[in-house]
Amino acid sequence: MPLTTKTIGPLSCQIYDKLPPGQSPKIITIISHGFGAPGDDLVPLGSEVLRKYPALAEQVRFVFPAAPLSLVEMGIPGGRAWWMLDVAELNAAIASGNIRDQRNKTPDGLLEAAQKFREFVDALQKESGLPLSQFVLAGFSQGSMISTEVALNLPQPPAALVLWSSTLLCEQRWTSLAEKAEKFPIQQSHGTQDPILPFDGAIWLKDMFEQNQFAVDFSEFMGPHTIPEIALEKFGTLLTGLTGTD
């Protein structure tokens, strides 16, 4: 399996591609995992996408950063986080079925994590020599939120932003950034039965982007907190279009 582990800027990451030696990709896709997952949690997505879309094999490099915080002390060996969560509060909300409205929250540690992620992107861009217009930022759950924060702050727009099971945070901040940002395409998917990040939060995020003239390809699916098949199909189609391999 063509997988390498290295440190780029402040973050460790795994890199997956099938590019011939010395060949640069047309697109670099950074895929960020969610809270509590190990840093390599989403690595299988790379091979799955290339299996379904073999023409991408010589076009796309997949990069999977590990979040900076270890959760060993929380009793989650190997688990990582972009910022800490109040797990007791989360579990209580899930048990009660209450919607977790986080629109007015800027979580402690989000901006610090975003700074590390941005340094990682800058270092990866410098190493690759590719412009930001050839980068796709993708993420699941907490990884999608850090991707949103960074994408809205980049000096040039990325090729696309892909959000699996996301939600709207820090609404005033993101709205202000979205108003000023150059627009880029967004893919978003969310399960109607998600107990962790309720569906309403995904709709609030979608609406915020659309009200600021972003084009959002939104996939609603009957299911929980996960990445569904339809999202992977659309992800592969997006990469195919960006690389001109369709």
What's the short version?
The strands form 2 sheets. An 8-stranded mixed beta sheet has the order 1-2-4-3-7-8-9-10, sandwiched between helices. Strands 5-6 form a two-stranded antiparallel sheet. The chain has helices at residues 44-52, 87-96, 110-128, 142-151, 171-180, 199-211, 229-243; strands at residues 3-8, 11-16, 27-32, 60-65, 69-70, 80-81, 135-140, 160-164, 186-191, 216-221. With 246 residues, the protein is α/β, with parallel strands linked by helices.
Characterization of this structure:
There is one protein chain. This protein is α/β, with parallel strands linked by helices. It has one domain: Rossmann fold. It is 35% helix and 21% strand. The chain contains 7 helices and 10 strands. It has helices spanning 44-52, 87-96, 110-128, 142-151, 171-180, 199-211, 229-243, and strands spanning 3-8, 11-16, 27-32, 60-65, 69-70, 80-81, 135-140, 160-164, 186-191, 216-221. The strands form 2 sheets. An 8-stranded mixed sheet has the order 1-2-4-3-7-8-9-10, sandwiched between helices. Helix 1 packs across helix 7 (229-243). The two termini are 25 Å apart.
Q: Secondary structure elements and their pairing?
A:
Layout: E1 3-8, E2 11-16, E3 27-32, H1 44-52, E4 60-65, E5 69-70, E6 80-81, H2 87-96, H3 110-128, E7 135-140, H4 142-151, E8 160-164, H5 171-180, E9 186-191, H6 199-211, E10 216-221, H7 229-243
Parallel strand pairs: 3-4, 3-7, 7-8, 8-9, 9-10
Antiparallel strand pairs: 1-2, 2-4, 5-6
Helix pairs in contact: 1-7, 3-4
